[in-house]
Design goal:
This protein is an all-alpha fold and 248 residues long. It is 78% helix and 0% strand. It has one domain. It is a multi-pass membrane protein.
Length: 248
């Protein structure tokens, strides 16, 4: 494993544990730039890393104490279906198109997140929007190789979870389900090969970062977390947009 992947993996886990998002968005470019992989190699490996790290963060944060299980089941089930379909679509897309779509989505969500007001409460969600949101996010998860957290957290806020740490907890659980759907679908693609040793090494280091992020999540105010999340997305979106232009 490249030495540069060690701090990158720590940062991936830290951001995932703190925001319930960003892991996949960081993992793909990190594997490409530091690990010298192509998008086609980085995307399926990213799904493995993100799922394992999200599981670690969820256990550490004891998210089962704050979950709305009806919402979780709906988003999880539709997310798995969407992720499996998205993985097959993503396998046939060009690398530059995958990155361009990802950059546009990230920047759009960053603007929305920066302006929405958190009500610091959890209210009843709406079923039909939850079904549509779950499938759409799962589709993008499989297609773009991201955990979906950067879409899940804003979606959860929109669906009625205005408490940021609670939205993060739900996001972690749904990321695990969505990534699992993508992993299963990619396992049927003969051209996709994953370095198991490297994947586990990156995931283990990132898991340590996720525990640190979980500790910070409990100590920082929601307003700062929200602003930090929006700023993170702006930087990531700009970087990936630049990356999409450099891919031939």
């Amino acid at each position: 494993m490249s030495f540069g992947l060690i701090p990158a993996a720590l940062l991936i886990g830290l951001i995932l544990g703190l925001f319930g998002a960003g892991g996949g968005m960081l993992t793909v470019p990190a594997l490409m730039m530091v690990g010298d992989m192509s998008v086609k190699e980085a995307v399926p490996m990213s799904l493995w890393v993100v799922s394992l790290v999200s599981l670690t963060a969820a256990i550490h944060q004891q998210v089962w104490k704050q979950l709305q299980y009806r919402l979780l089941i709906i988003l999880g089930a539709t997310g798995i279906a969407g992720s499996a379909s998205g993985a097959r679509i993503g396998a046939g897309m060009s690398e530059s198109l995958q990155l361009a779509i990802l950059a546009i989505l990230i920047l759009t969500v960053a603007v929305w997140t920066g302006f929405v007001r958190l009500e610091n409460k959890v209210s009843t969600f709406r079923y039909i929007p939850a079904v549509l949101a779950g499938f759409a996010i799962g589709l993008l998860t499989g297609m773009l190789g991201v955990g979906g957290g950067f879409l899940l957290v804003p979606a959860l806020i929109f669906l009625g979870i205005g408490h940021f740490p609670t939205a993060v907890g739900h996001s972690l659980m749904i990321i695990i389900a969505n990534a699992a759907g993508g992993i299963i679908s990619y396992s049927t693609v003969e051209s996709v090969h994953i370095d198991i040793g490297l994947t586990l090494s990156v995931a283990l280091i990132a898991a340590v970062g996720s525990i640190i992020g979980g500790i910070l999540l409990k100590r920082l105010p929601a307003a700062r977390l929200q602003k930090g999340f929006a700023i993170l997305l702006i930087f990531l979106g700009g970087f990936i947009a630049w990356q999409s232009l450099s891919v031939t």
